[in-house]
Automatic annotation (TrEMBL):
Family: Belongs to the SURF1 family.
Subcellular location: Cell membrane; Membrane
Chain ranges passing through the membrane: 12-32, 225-245
One cellular-component annotation, GO: plasma membrane
Main location: membrane
Organism of origin: Streptomyces piniterrae
Region (Disordered) residue spans: 72-92, 264-287
Cross-referenced Pfam families: SURF1 (PF02104)
UniProt keyword list: Cell membrane, Membrane, Transmembrane, Transmembrane helix
Protein name, UniProt field: SURF1-like protein
Taxonomic lineage of the native organism: Bacteria, Bacillati, Actinomycetota, Actinomycetes, Kitasatosporales
Length: 287
């Protein structure tokens, strides 16, 4: 009855199912593992952030390059603010009790003793970076030699929230905080990192440090979870289609064994018409 399973057509179906089902399960498990890994790194990052806030600041150079471990750590540096290259970073939101508000970062470059400059986000202000009434509220940076400490952050990229990588911003504004975007603005080397101050001048508000890239429960993490469900659904679909085809073939084989055949209607009509025609065309005996 099940000899049809040995036909070349069913050999192909069986081989496909045997290979496809484990592959889908493997891919689903792999995507689930990626999601769980992001959950674990998110918890680790939160723990590191909590410890970093309580830990003493360390010299900047000892924490470079920025990675998942050093991101958010308190870094310290000494130097002079370059008041001639203070920049505004527009289109940056900040959450408060009334919800999320739009505003801009105030970024000033700190010329350190090493000769390189460190981008320092001195704080955030609500409003429009193109409105004179809002930019007039920006306090002047301290003069003379200063010692700063803040949460260390990696350079932004095109995927960072709020970044305006297309360019075309007015003079004195910066779309992306990175050494690459600053190289054509200032005539000196810039660290491939930046810090955000916790202690800010009024009316500036401190900018909280962001989680290191790839360590938070971001959109990519939930994409991994969605892909997990998709792969398991694919595996279930392969099983469903195999049993559906198997059931149809086995029922057809049973019907054939019982001599039951299904004949389609001809172009001239149904089976009843054929019987009627047969009765009318019976041959007559010759005299």
């Amino acid at each position: 009855m099940y000899r049809f399973l040995l036909t070349p057509r069913w050999w192909g179906i069986n081989v496909f199912a045997v290979l496809a089902i484990p592959f889908c399960i493997f891919m689903g498990s792999w995507q689930l593992g990626r999601f769980e890994e992001r959950v674990d790194t998110h918890a680790q990052q939160e723990d590191r952030s909590a410890r970093a806030k309580a830990a003493a600041a360390r010299p900047l150079d000892s924490l470079l390059p920025v990675d998942k471990v050093t991101s958010g750590r308190q870094a310290s540096a000494r130097g002079h603010y370059d008041t001639g290259h203070q920049l505004l970073v527009p289109g940056r939101g900040l959450d408060d009790k009334q919800g999320r508000k739009q505003g801009f970062y105030v970024l000033t470059l700190l010329r350190t003793e090493s000769g390189k400059a460190l981008p320092v986000v001195r704080g955030w202000l609500p409003g429009d970076a193109n409105a004179k009434a809002d930019t007039a509220k920006v306090p002047a940076p301290p003069k003379g030699e200063v010692a700063v400490s803040g949460a260390l952050q990696a350079s932004e990229n095109q995927g960072t929230d709020g970044v305006q990588a297309a360019g075309g911003l007015p003079k004195g504004q910066l779309g992306m905080i990175s050494a690459a975007s600053l190289v054509n603005i200032v005539p000196y080397e810039v660290y491939d990192a930046w810090i955000t101050l916790a202690d800010t001048q009024s009316p500036l508000r401190p900018v909280p440090p962001a989680a290191a890239e790839g360590s938070g429960l971001d959109l990519k993490a939930f994409q991994n979870l969605g892909y997990t469900g998709e792969w398991f659904v694919f595996a279930g679909f392969v099983v469903f289609m195999w049993f559906r085809l198997f059931r149809r073939e086995s029922e057809a084989a049973k019907d054939a064994a019982l001599g039951i055949t299904v004949e389609g209607a001809g172009a001239g009509g149904g089976a009843g018409d054929v019987d009627a025609g047969a009765g009318e065309s019976q041959p007559t005996s010759r005299a």
